[in-house]
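Section 5.1 Outputs to date
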Amino acid sequence: MDQNCSYCAEGALLDAFGIKICELPMSKVILFKEQSHKGRVIVACKRHVDDITDLSKEERTAFLEDVNRVAEVLHELFKPDKINFGAYGDTMHHLHFHLVPKYRDGFEWGGVFAMNPKEKFLSDGEYRELIDQIRGKLQG
């Protein structure tokens, strides 16, 4: 665990950009506060590793199963035309995927999603509603 890592330490570091939804077997699911793409989340590995190649085959399989499970829930709840998957990490050295629902007539369709376009933030109630919907499907 790295106390300087947003995904490990959580608290104020995570609060700067996300809200923890729940934990799955190999990951933490986080609602990305900037919601230009309705339903955008981050799936972060529970273990502090820099790259997917740092996981054992079993851990990698479990992590990708978590990513897939979250994608299925996003498809069911928000009906995007496509989900973009981003696994960067140039500056955040903790394995995580951005799952970004894209809508044919929506923001940034046909292009690469911006890391943080700072276009759309929600009220606390709207965040709570999204979190409850996603958590309900993931834990149900």
